[in-house]
Write a structure and sequence with these properties.
Distance between the termini: 42 Å
Largest sheet: 6 strands, parallel
Shape: globular
CATH architecture of the largest domain: 3-Layer(aba) Sandwich
CATH topology of the largest domain: Rossmann fold
Number of helices: 25
Number of domains: 3
CATH class of the largest domain: Alpha Beta
Number of strands: 16
Length: 621
Amino acid sequence: MAERTVDRASLEMLKKAARENIGTVWDRFESQQPQCGFGQLGVCCRNCNMGPCRIDPFGDGPEEGVCGATADTIAARNLVRMIAAGAAAHSDHGRDVVTTLLATARGTAQGYQIKDEAKLQALAEEFGIATEGRSKEEVAADLAREAMEEFGMSKGALQFLKRAPAKRQALWERLGIAPRGIDREVVEAMHRTNMGVDNDYVNLVLHGVRTSLSDGWGGSMFATEFSDVLFGTPMPVQGTCNLGVLKPDQVNVIVHGHEPTLSEMIVLAARDEELLKAARDAGAGGINVCGMCCTSNELLMRHGVPIAGNFLQQELAVITGAVEAIVVDVQCIMPALANVARCYHTRLISTSPKAKFPGAEHVPFDEHAALDTAKQIIRMAIENYPRRKQELVQIPDQQISFIGGLSVEAILQALGGSLNPLLDAVKAGQIKGIAAIVGCNNPKTTQDQGHLTLARELIRNDVLVVETGCAAIACAKGGLLLPEAAAEAGQGLRAVCELLKVPPVFHMGSCVDISRILVVASAIANALGVDISDLPVAGAAPEWMSEKAVAIGAYVVGSGIFTVLGTVPPILGGKGLVDLLTNGAEGVLGAVFAVEPDPQKAAALILRHIAAKRLALGLEA
């Protein structure tokens, strides 16, 4: 068991699952061994019905597919399709937040309100929308309509691209990869990868980067900014995490997925006095809402809602036997949850028309009846509480406090309203650089080990770490999101953290909130009068698994940030493609990928990169 995870709560539940003969994601991973070698190398193609074709990487078999596509072409097409799917997922999340803002402005979204008027005003100014003498609802409606146009192609280029340094904008224009519209780039990616269209792997990759930029500087940025307008811009908050946040005497409801439009209403409904009385009448002490995956980050930042775990803990939460309902919307939800839930009393409730799960109960959710639907879901959980089988309940006692919610605005506030203290610390060498650790868990790696090992090694060497998503949850469970964790940092970073009373690892939100990191990187580059690619910054995804992570990695590199991947992407069969992404892209985009499964070695790569960038800026290495 020990090779599966470093998290003690997860280990405890894995042993319980084995005793009760419940299969988990790790068991299913082992049953797939050995996995298809052609698929792992990215040299199998099913894009038409002349195949499937596969290229033999050892030279003993075909060197071309039936149509003549080479290994580089096939691997590049597969990569671009992964980028398109990941960008579509994040951007569709953004679109739903935009439509919710419009419905709220029109007064047709039940339970929602505009909570951050200052951010609304700032965004309106950025989009050239008049605000003088107008209500917040009128301004929000115009802003939402402007955002909707960004998903098509009527405006020519995305508004948020102007946040990037002028040098980066000019580079995108020169390469022809400035996104014209979010949906436009995703559709074109699918067209280009159709049989008989784009066969040049370099050209394919360039459009893949363009598509990914429409996510990072478009869809994801809309999701982040408009969520702040609707639900409030996060500020530092103390939270608790790991499976120990489940309560033995309360109705436990886990919200799992990504879209805060659902989870916000679940939290509101769980505080309804009538429903709290119903829970007490059912024999429970109250209603305990917890988050899982990225939804948990959203709720933690704005409401202090506890986090039950990250991606690989979703089945384990059910295996505690103490969860009345697990409520899901979209993304990162394992279909196997229904099978695990059937072994206990847990009700799996799906809510999105985009994501139905055989074996789940479906309760359609939309913003027009949001609060009523959320109350219905909470009532279903309450009704399920008496069915809990106490003999199957085993809640690990692992839980830990941490600090989350460090938005761009919160960071600026901590620095006294200016980035200058951070820049001064970087220039003086107290902080050598900044590294963003993001992404998922993957059963190919020991759960959380990559995130924790990489973060510890970087902060030990005076690199400030910023995190989102499951990576942030991993480091929260490991105690690195507390001010006391500065004791593990190098002398320079420790002094800064102690002065500001902040952790050496910043929790900046969910996966879409990587857009916050782009905003900070742009602001630093603008302050120094350089491009993002000139900064001593790096990105890493030690345990990634999702197509969304491929899109993220592409837009991070496309924005000029060196990025290290911890699990191997399916491209190694295309040798030219690999060379382009790990070497040739440096001369085009100013950044490349590296693949390094060993987190200690990954840290060494990042530290060398940061030292080189410091030297080029004339700073002490």
